[in-house]
């Protein structure tokens, strides 16, 4: 079949990979240059530990508290915008214990499938992308966070995800080369990390080698619909006729689904990162500094610091106050790291495609026969990339799917 993929982030690229492996003729269209999007500068964590969706009880109250501080890790840019209001309402409706309970096995199975596919990819593709299985530390400094993390660790262990509560000394033992000042941590030994910039670069090279046509700087602007299917994908440069279309346009996906008659609740969740390059990274195990919601990931011999979640539509401007919030938090956990406010132009920013219930959108759009969505992965798009691509390929090939697809249905909010 002739397959068109819209979007060359991790979701689109892995979809292209698994579809091409099945012998399809694949064309990937991206509006940008595929060297700086959300799938590049992120924290690179592969997180089977993250089985609790963002929409969880307590998040609304926490979010409101955080919004009062200019350097806090969470912010919603106030806008009188119908899509944002609908998203917020759906988030609120899903921030319940029963939603969390239902989502835990769903996220766990998707994450474990993805980790397995990453392991296969690391072992068999001949592609190096910094794959390391050193686990993840959730570092905390306050009794409140300790309590929250102990509860999450118990939930994880019950769900079959290994989690260990560590004392400050046990944390220090895992980090022999730098001082860590914490009250404790939860250690998830099953997590992993990658160097995402390298993954994306290598995937693009591999796809080209496999014969995928990759067209950069070619934004999709419209569709021609005919008899319940996409007849043509219209771009700035012309139009394409495909048998099947995969829509993986990240935070911009709703702009395109609107043209297909689907109102997709999805907001861009902006985050920032920067590299600490001197001296070479001394942090061994990737970590989330819990109270600050900032991350530290050893990568390519250096350390990537990342954080914040600003619900800001598709605004890509850098807010120095939020970056300062990340910078100020690092030495509270790692007092010896030489961290200083980076020049604004060196700060990377990306838009996480956030669904309101914390589950991705993967699957068919009922009213159009030849469209499959692959977006909405929020904070876990890199982690879930291979599983997403595999499921997309299975759906398009009408094969038995590796996991039940109902929880990921792109039309699950259509009636609300
Ligand atoms: C600070 C930060 C840290 C993160 N850390 C992690 C982490 O540790 N682990 C993890 O798993 N995830 C992490 N994430 C989330 C992860 O980066 C995203 O979920 C993931 O990159 C989303 O990938 P995507 O392919 O869905 O979207 P994107 O990477 O945004 O790709 C979408 C592509 O679609 C293209 N596009 C849009 N509109 C059009 C159009 N009209 N025509 C053609 N092309 C179009 C865009 O140019 C873009 O290239 C982090 C994100 C941030 C911001």
UniProtKB/TrEMBL annotation:
A GO-annotated cellular component: cytoplasm
SUPFAM superfamilies listed in its UniProt record: FAD-linked reductases, C-terminal domain, FAD/NAD(P)-binding domain
Superkingdom per UniProt: Bacteria
Alphabetized Gene3D superfamilies for the sequence: D-Amino Acid Oxidase, subunit A, domain 2, FAD/NAD(P)-binding domain
Organism taxonomic ancestry: Bacteria, Pseudomonadati, Bacteroidota, Cytophagia, Cytophagales
Organism: Fibrisoma limi BUZ 3
Name of the featured protein: FAD dependent oxidoreductase
Record-annotated FAD dependent oxidoreductase domain positions: 3-394
């Amino acid at each position: 079949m002739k397959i068109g993929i819209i979007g060359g982030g991790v979701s689109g690229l892995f979809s292209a990979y698994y579809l091409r492996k099945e012998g399809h003729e694949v064309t990937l269209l991206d509006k940008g240059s595929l060297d700086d999007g959300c799938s590049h500068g992120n924290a690179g964590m592969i997180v089977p530990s993250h089985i609790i969706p963002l929409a969880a009880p307590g998040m609304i109250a926490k979010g409101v508290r955080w919004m009062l501080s200019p350097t806090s890790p969470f912010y919603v840019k106030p806008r009188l915008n119908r899509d944002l209001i609908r998203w917020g309402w759906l988030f609120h409706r899903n921030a319940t214990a029963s939603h969390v309970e239902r989502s835990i096995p769903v996220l766990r199975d998707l994450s474990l499938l993805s980790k397995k596919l990453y392991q296969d990819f690391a072992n068999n593709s001949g592609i190096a992308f910094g794959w390391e299985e050193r686990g993840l530390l959730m570092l905390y400094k306050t009794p409140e966070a300790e309590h929250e993390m102990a509860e999450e660790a118990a939930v994880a262990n019950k769900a079959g995800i290994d989690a260990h509560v560590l004392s400050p000394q046990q944390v220090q033992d895992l980090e022999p080369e730098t001082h860590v000042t914490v009250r404790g941590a939860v250690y998830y030994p099953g997590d992993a990390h990658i160097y995402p910039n390298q993954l994306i670069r290598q995937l693009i090279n591999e796809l080209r080698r496999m014969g995928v046509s990759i067209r950069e700087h070619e934004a999709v602007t419209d569709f021609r619909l005919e008899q319940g299917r996409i007849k043509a994908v219209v771009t700035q440069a012309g139009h394409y006729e495909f048998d099947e279309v995969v829509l993986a346009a990240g935070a911009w996906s709703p702009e395109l689904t609107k043209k297909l008659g689907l109102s997709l609740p999805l907001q861009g969740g902006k985050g920032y990162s920067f590299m600490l390059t001197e001296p070479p990274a001394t942090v061994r195990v990737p970590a989330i500094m819990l109270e600050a919601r900032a991350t530290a990931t050893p990568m390519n011999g250096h350390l990537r610091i990342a954080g914040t979640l600003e619900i800001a539509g598709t605004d890509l401007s850098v807010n120095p106050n939020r970056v300062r919030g990340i910078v100020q938090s690092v030495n509270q956990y790692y007092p010896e790291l030489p961290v200083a406010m980076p020049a604004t132009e060196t700060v990377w920013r990306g838009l996480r495609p956030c669904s309101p219930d914390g589950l991705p959108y993967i699957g068919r759009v009922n009213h159009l026969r030849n469209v499959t969505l692959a977006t909405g992965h929020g904070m876990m798009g890199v982690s879930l990339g291979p599983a997403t691509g595999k499921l997309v390929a299975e759906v398009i090939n009408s094969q038995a799917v590796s996991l039940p697809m109902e929880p990921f249905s792109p039309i699950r909010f259509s009636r609300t």
